[in-house]
């Protein structure tokens, strides 16, 4: 409910207003988020706000707004100079409120931290005429049929056979390209690889850099563009060209076009393809499944890995990759606030170090709530919590041991529950069991009778 309805309302337009609003108003917004987090987790009022936020796994409105501001700036700064919004972002203005940061300043600071300011950005533009509409006139064809007969869960032999059937059914070509992109763990230093198989100029394999911050999709685009550029320089004898990629999203996007501004790389791919079709070259754009032992694709994959080792300075950073970098910085800043506000000796920090609870599907709502409350050390089953609430019938101490009965005492220490503990949590568990094996903690609470069986 909170994430679907409340958070979006608070964030609407937040990039513009949040940095200008007073600190107290920001805090009011964040209190709404904290109230949402308390409802999500069932943690009682009086639980440390940052702990509840971590348990609910939501970020404060101001942290999210900061991120949105930085992304907005990133989006606008790539537009052509003639767009008024772009002028607003880049112009120097005298500040009217000296003691407040403008969203520009805040956003620029984040971009600096994400190391975006030192890289050339890829421009976005609205092409005068959508190139994908004028594309081809029957000369450019798209083929994604291998996807109809296989899924990516099929073994490589099956996917390879499906791809070969598709390729064999197509008219023969004078030149064939295989392109592939590669990035470190899905986002990071990227590279592209191209394999060309051609009678005229002979076969060739080469690599291109995709930038220091590149998504795998971006790396695929860069590789594909390298192939299109090369195809544009082919001798006149080449009348049919086949471009094979294992990125289905790229083929789909090239075919459909876009309603908004398009990044340079894609515009250049479209322009290149149009150029080829004007030269009366027939172009087949084919999707083939990746990692299916197709020789050309495997070779392109190797070349893409090499592309990652090339100097990356010449590669521009595209908007989606910049967004990932910004989210990374903002997320790191937000998780940093956990360590500055929750002291090291706090139960929650020792149990979870700020990580959230991984839900298991068979848990009932009250199981989830119990775990959240235990991790926060604010649970009505604990005498220490009841004493904190000034309940008249408790002193907050364990009746057996005479020490405060908190999460740690019940889960890890109290001799009363040692039999159940040894059986379910290990002989001498630490608080981290609440993070590593929450399900065992639930069983422990049932076994000890502390949590009555559900009716
Ligand atoms: Zn005890």
TrEMBL record:
SUPFAM superfamilies: Ribonuclease H-like (SSF53098). CDD domains: Rnase_HI_RT_non_LTR (cd09276). Residues 171-309 form the RNase H type-1 domain. GO terms for molecular function: nucleic acid binding; RNA-DNA hybrid ribonuclease activity. Pfam families: RNase_H (PF00075). Coiled coil: none annotated. This is RNase H type-1 domain-containing protein.
């Amino acid at each position: 409910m909170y994430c679907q309805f409340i958070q979006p309302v608070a964030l609407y337009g937040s990039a513009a207003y949040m940095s200008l609003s007073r600190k107290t108003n920001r805090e009011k917004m964040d209190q709404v988020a904290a109230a949402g987090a308390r409802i999500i987790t069932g943690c009682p009022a009086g639980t440390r706000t940052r702990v509840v936020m971590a348990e609910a796994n939501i970020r404060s409105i101001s942290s999210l707004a900061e991120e949105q501001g930085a992304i907005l700036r990133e989006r606008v700064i790539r537009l052509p100079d003639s767009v008024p919004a772009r002028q607003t972002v880049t112009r120097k203005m005298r500040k009217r409120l000296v003691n407040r940061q403008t969203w520009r300043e805040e956003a620029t600071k984040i971009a600096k931290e994400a190391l975006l300011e030192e890289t050339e950005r890829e421009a976005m533009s609205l092409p005068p005429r959508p190139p994908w509409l004028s594309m081809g006139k029957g000369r450019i064809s798209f083929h994604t049929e291998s996807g109809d007969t296989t899924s990516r869960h099929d073994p490589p032999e099956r996917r390879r056979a499906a791809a070969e059937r598709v390729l064999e059914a197509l008219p023969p070509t004078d030149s064939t390209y295989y392109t592939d992109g590669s990035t470190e763990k899905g986002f990071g230093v990227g590279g592209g690889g191209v394999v060309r198989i051609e009678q005229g100029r002979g076969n060739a394999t080469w690599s291109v850099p995709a930038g220091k911050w590149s998504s795998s999709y971006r790396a695929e685009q860069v590789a594909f563009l390298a192939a299109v550029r090369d195809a544009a320089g082919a001798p006149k004898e080449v009348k049919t060209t086949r471009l094979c990629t294992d990125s289905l999203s790229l083929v789909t996007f090239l075919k459909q076009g876009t309603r908004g501004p398009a990044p340079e790389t894609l515009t250049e791919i479209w322009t290149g393809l149009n150029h080829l079709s004007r030269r009366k070259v027939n172009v087949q754009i084919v999707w083939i499944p990746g990692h299916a032992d197709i020789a050309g694709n495997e070779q392109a994959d190797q070349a893409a890995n090499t592309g990652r080792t090339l100097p990356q300075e010449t590669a521009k950073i595209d908007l989606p990759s910049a967004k990932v970098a910004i989210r990374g910085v903002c997320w790191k800043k937000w998780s940093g606030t956990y360590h500055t506000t929750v002291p090291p000796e706090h139960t929650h920090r020792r149990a979870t170090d700020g990580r959230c609870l991984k839900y298991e599907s068979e848990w009932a709502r009250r199981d989830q709530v119990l775990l959240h409350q235990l991790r926060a050390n604010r649970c009505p089953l604990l005498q220490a919590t009841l004493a904190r609430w000034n309940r008249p019938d408790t002193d907050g101490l364990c009746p057996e041991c005479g020490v405060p009965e908190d999460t740690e005492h019940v889960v890890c220490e109290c001799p009363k529950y040692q039999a159940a503990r040894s059986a379910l949590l290990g002989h001498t568990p630490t608080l981290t069991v609440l993070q590593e094996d929450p399900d065992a903690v639930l069983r422990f609470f049932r076994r000890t009778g502390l949590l009555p069986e559900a009716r």
